[in-house]
Each structure stands twice: as structure tokens, then as C-alpha cells.
Amino acid sequence: MITIKDMADMLGISTTTVSNVIHGKTSEVSQKTVDRVEKLLKEYDYVPNNSARSLSQKCSKIIGVSIKGRKGQYDNIMADPFFSVLLGAIEAEIRRRGYFMMIYTSDDIQELIRNVLTWNVDGLILLGILHDDFVKIRSRYKNPIVLIDSYAPRDIMNYVNVGLEDEKGAYEMTLHLLERGHRRIAFLADNMEGVDYTRYIGHQRALAKYGIKADSKDLLIIQRGVTEMEASMEELYYMSRNYTAFMCCSDYWAVLLMSYFSDRGIRIPEDLSFTGFDDVLISRIIRPALTTVHQDPIRRGELAVDTLIKMIQGEEIPDWDVKLPVELVIRDSVKRIGSYGGCGEDRDAGVK
Amino acid sequence: MITIKDMADMLGISTTTVSNVIHGKTSEVSQKTVDRVEKLLKEYDYVPNNSARSLSQKCSKIIGVSIKGRKGQYDNIMADPFFSVLLGAIEAEIRRRGYFMMIYTSDDIQELIRNVLTWNVDGLILLGILHDDFVKIRSRYKNPIVLIDSYAPRDIMNYVNVGLEDEKGAYEMTLHLLERGHRRIAFLADNMEGVDYTRYIGHQRALAKYGIKADSKDLLIIQRGVTEMEASMEELYYMSRNYTAFMCCSDYWAVLLMSYFSDRGIRIPEDLSFTGFDDVLISRIIRPALTTVHQDPIRRGELAVDTLIKMIQGEEIPDWDVKLPVELVIRDSVKRIGSYGGCGEDRDAGVK
DNA sequence: TTGTATGCGTTATCAG
DNA sequence: CTGATAACGCATACAA
Fold first, then answer.
1. DSSP 3-state assignment of A220?
2. N or C: which end of chain A has fewer CB within 10 A?
3. Closest CA to C6 C1' — which residue?
4. Angle of helix B166-179 relative to helix B194-209, nearest 10 degrees?
5. Helix (H/G/I), strand (E/B), else coil: A108
6. Count of CB atoms within 10 A of residue A47's CB?
């Protein structure tokens, strides 16, 4: 590992000059010197020491990415294809922009804060963080932050949220169910904060349009955690006879439940319709293919990184709460029900 | 951000003493001083600057993780659930051990090398790297390296490979197909190096046991790249009539193909049987559930990190080529064929 | 056009 | 028990 000083010594010039050549500040250096330095640069394949650079400047070129792992939700959070694809897009864009990515998925916010501070990370991308945690982070970390899938009230602290038309997506999906004659719709979420809450609002709005009052007992929360999940699914299975459709907050859950239910004799969509959210690969692959709300995780990741880097470079961001578009994707998991919207007419045949 | 020097000044003592207290070298410091320092530590929530530490020591506490993205294979490599779950496990273990994870997925090896050198990464975990690339990296990077899914010849350079019983897995799977009466089996891979090659060896060995000579035209390579893939699948579709079973090198491809084929009228497993490799979540979820070879990505990630950290700490690793166990998981995607093993008897009904 | 000197925060050496 | 000082590699303000 050759250093600037080594090269300066070899050429009998100062480190300043070498440094200037490296950074292209070649206007003040004679062409001859430039050539000699560049020759050495190539020859020894000089690689700068970023710890040193980071120490002497204020910036580290590191972007921290953190997913708040909901405790024990899956084996690990990356099992959710939406997160992993999004993360892949973020990584690619960070790299393309010449930054480095440090990743941290724990749910220990204090530890996250220490990590971020200890490396003097230039900017932070936070996925699915809740308001309280965000406040904690903001109080100690002063650099730019971009949120994804967050509904933190803006308050005083500045951030940018790269969000989604969650409300609209849920609204349109619910409308679709209603149009197909469904009246007894369960809304499935795995929490009631942030994104899922907003989707529920959209759901309610669509119901209201049809003069249906949302009933809180139709709001079903799936227990997270590998062990609780099984019990939770069983419970949902028994409740399912009260509904004609399960509207899920993510493809991940939709697909898991569809599999569980169909193993127990429920025919989809004949006995029970399903919808998802995200449009991950698997929803196109399973049969029946899942009717869902499409979003573009690649674009989202890129936008998040672009925005963050703009903030790092001191640009003003006009829109601190962008909402990326969603699109209803109708596939085969929603049954058309007779004009009366009568529910469960041929249900019990399939159950048990 | 308070520094050691700040605290030393506040207490009127030297930085050395503060540093000693921080590192628990308390044997040479009076209890009174220890208490005073620790009080400040808490009060200001001191966080060390890791760039500085990394500069003055030889170690950075960073572990680099790199997946060689095969050019344009997917939208991004993380779309493959096996990789993403493995990565999640690696991240969790790195964190648990007090290290930091820097990730890099490009296929530009030179760039990877620069990244690793510029941060003076303590150790490297490389996923799915090929021999030539490994040699390049080794020539410039001298710290410990752990390989996952690699079959680089050991040569002189030292590394540890955390592998899998690939040969055995493929052997057993092929045997399973043979026992169920299949004789015309296509072997599907997306490359013929490393892991997939080893699996092919196992496949051949099983065929040999049944006195069947492997025919290279039964070795089907799926074109990577989003655009080529479509054409490739179509081609495979037309070739499929020659076979009773498609044995795939990953669940990912198996599942993709099953979906594509069944949309075109091929019934699985009645018309064509499928097997996979990895046992990712999706194989349990699709119908028919996929017969596949199970491996444990969580354990694998943990072992990789554990081994690497041992190497970093200078311990000798007894086994530089561990092969984690696999297990055949029989589900519903393989048909039982009459004792003659006649192929395609009821095939053309479903095709076209 | 080039060089000198300094500081970034930490650890380590060595002397008191 | 404690402290001064150097060193890590780089960038920059300031001289020459």
C-alpha cells in the first residue's frame, strides 16, 4: 500500500503536489510533474486511505442504511423480497455514485446511533422507521436523512420521505373488491403504524364510498414472530369463514396465507379471495397469480439515494414528501361475486 | 461529538489516561480517576471516531461482503431469495460480533479491490466468486478471506471455503428421480462453473449408478440477463417435450420455469417433473410444492462470519473446506412413472 | 509552480 | 500511577 508521502519522496517533490495531481487540481502544476506523478499512480496502483481522508475532512463517503428489524418477525428481515430488492437497488445506486454502503438492521436504536456516529456517516437511509425512533436518531445525528416508508410527523427536524401512494393504492384495491361484489372484506396488517395505517385509511375511504362503515373487528393483525405466526394463522383460518376476501398489506403475507389456507382445503379464489401489496416476483409466480398493488422498488431505491446525495451536497430538496405512484395489477386471486354481493354462498363446501 | 482530548482537558488529565480507562486498562489508573472519567463518558455519551482508530491501528473492524453480481442476471442479485436470506444472516452475525459490514455487489473486481483496500477492511466474505477473480483479489489483498459457494483450487493462497455437500445433494436428488422412474432428465444450470459444476458431477454419478451415461445435450444452460431469459425459457419450453424431469440448480430457476411452463399448458408434475436446490421459502409456498435440496442459509452465514473472525484473530482454522450438510426434501413436484420409466407417454396432451 | 506546516482523533511508546 | 510526544495518511491554508 503506497502512500502519497512515499510517492512524493520517490519523486523528490512535496505531498501537496502529489495530492493536487490526484484531485485533478492540475492547473497549478507543470505538465511534466503531472505526468511523472500519474505514471507512479498507475505503476503502484495507488489507493487512498479513506480513514485518513475521512479524518482530515468532515466527510466519510459512507452512507448508512438501516432497516429496523421488527423483533423476530422473520428469520431475518431480508426474507421479505420487497426489502431485499429495494436494498439491492439502494446498494447499486450508492456504488454508482461513488459512495460506500454500511448496513445495519438491528432494532436497537442506541446501537444504530453509535454506529452512525462512530463512522461519521455522511447520510442515512432509514427503512420503515417509526416516529419515536426517528426523533431519537435526529437528536444525536445531524447529517441528512432520507426515510423510506415512514410517516413521521415532520415537526421541526428536517428529512425527506420517499414514500408511496399508499392511501390511493389501498383505496383502489378496496374499490376493486367492492366492484367485484365483495362486501365482507378483512383487512390484514402486521402492525397499525406508518404505512399499514395509511393503507387502512384508504381502505376505509373506499368502503365509505359504498356506504359501508369500517368495522374494527374486520381489521386483523397478524402476529409476528416465527412461533406466534403459526397460531395467528390458525386463528385467521377460523375467522376466514366470515369473509369473502382477505386484503393483505403485503404480498409476503398474502402469499404465506394463501398457501396455508389452500393446504387446509380452502379454494382460492372460489372460497376466498386474496389481494396483496408490492407486486414482488412471487406474486406473479404463484397460482392463482395474486391481484396486488404494484410499486417499483428499483426506482424507489434510486430516488432515495439520489435525494440523499443531493442533500449531502447541500442542495435544497423541493419536495420533502414525495409519493411514488402505485398501480393496481389485476390477476386471478379475486373472485367475481354475484350482483348482490352475497357472501359465502358456496363457501362451506371448501372449508374443512 | 466529544473527543478524548476534550475530556482530558475537562478533567485536567492526559489523553492517555482517558484512553486507558476507555479500554479497561484500569490496572494502572487510580480508582478516583477511573470514576471521574467514566462519569464523563456517560454524561457526554462518548462515541469513538473509528476513522481515527482505524488509522492509528492496523484494523478497521470492518468486514467486507461481496457478491459477484453476474452481469444482468436479475434486476439485482438480491432478487434471489437464497442470497438475500444468507446476506441477512451474515449481517446479523457481523453485528453481533461487534464488527461493521460494508457491502459491495458489483462484478467489477478491480473496483472491489479498491474498495477493500481503501477501507483497510479486516476480512472479506466472498459469495460465488470464481477462481480467476479470487486470484486477482488475493494478489492485492492480504487479510483473511472466507469464500461461500466457491470451488477455487487452493493453490498457495490461503482461504477458507464454507461450502455445501453439493455433489451429494445432486446425487441424491438424481437418485430420487431415477427411483421414481425418470430416465430422461434435463439438468438445468445458469453457468458451468463452481457450484453448478459440482452438482453436475453428482448428477452424473447417480446416472452412472443406473448405468446411464450422461449426455451433454441434456445439460441445459439458462441464459442470464433479463432480455435473454425470455428467449431462453421459450427454447427450454420446446425442448421440454424430450424430458420427463427438469432438475434445476436453484429453486429460483425452478420456480420461474414452473410458472412459465404451466402458463403454457404444461401440467406439473403430470406432464413434467421439477426439482430445485436451496429450499427457499417460495418452494414451500408454490403449488405443487417443490421437491428440492435443503440447506440452512442462516447457519451458513453464521459459520462464515465466525470463521472469518477467528482468522482475523489469528486462530488456525483446522478445516479450510467445510461442507455443510444438505437434505433431500420430497414434496409434490416429481411424478412417479411406471416401472418402465417410459417417458412422455401422456405428454403431448398438455403441450400446446 | 512547488513546498511547509498543521490538524483531524486515536493509540502506543517511553519517560517521569 | 500519569503525561508528553510521535505516528497513522491525507488535505489544506499559507509561504515561498
1. strand
2. C
3. A56
4. 40
5. coil
6. 18
Distance from CA of A111 to the nearest CA of B (A): 10
Tens of each residue's pLDDT in chain A, 352 residues = 899 999 999 999 999 999 999 998 887 788 889 999 999 999 999 999 999 999 998 889 999 999 876 544 445 666 778 888 999 999 999 999 999 999 998 878 999 999 999 999 999 999 988 888 898 999 999 999 999 988 777 665 678 999 999 999 999 999 999 999 999 999 999 888 789 999 999 999 999 999 999 999 999 988 777 677 788 889 999 999 999 999 999 998 999 999 999 999 999 999 999 999 999 989 998 989 999 999 999 999 999 999 999 999 999 888 888 999 999 999 999 999 975 444 444 433 333 2
Q: Measured in angstroms, what separates residue B125's CA from nucleotide D9's C1'?
A: 26
A100-104/B100-104 β-pairing: antiparallel
Q: What residue type is assigned to position A175 of the chain? A: L
The closest alpha carbon to B109, from B79, B129, B93, belongs to: B129
Q: Distance (Å) from CA A56 to C1' C7?
A: 7
Sign of CA dihedral B79, B84, B86, B87: positive
What's the rounded Cα separation, in Å, for the pair A210 and B232?
Answer: 47
Is the distance between the Cβ of A56 and the closest atom of strand C smaller than 7 Å?
A: yes
User: How many alpha carbons lie under 13 Å from residue B78 in its C-beta half-sphere?
Assistant: 28
A62, A68, A78: best to mutate for the B interface, most B CBs within 10 A: A78
A4 Cβ contacts chain D strand, under 7 Å: yes
State which fold the A62-164+298-325 domain adopts.
Rossmann fold (3.40.50)
pTM over 0.70: yes
Matching CATH number, A166-295+329-350, of 1.10.10.10, 3.40.50.2300, 1.25.40.10, 1.10.1520.10: 3.40.50.2300
Nearest to A92 among B76, B95, B258 (CB): B76
SS3 label, residue A123:
strand
User: How far is B206 from chain A, CA to nearest CA, in Å?
Assistant: 31
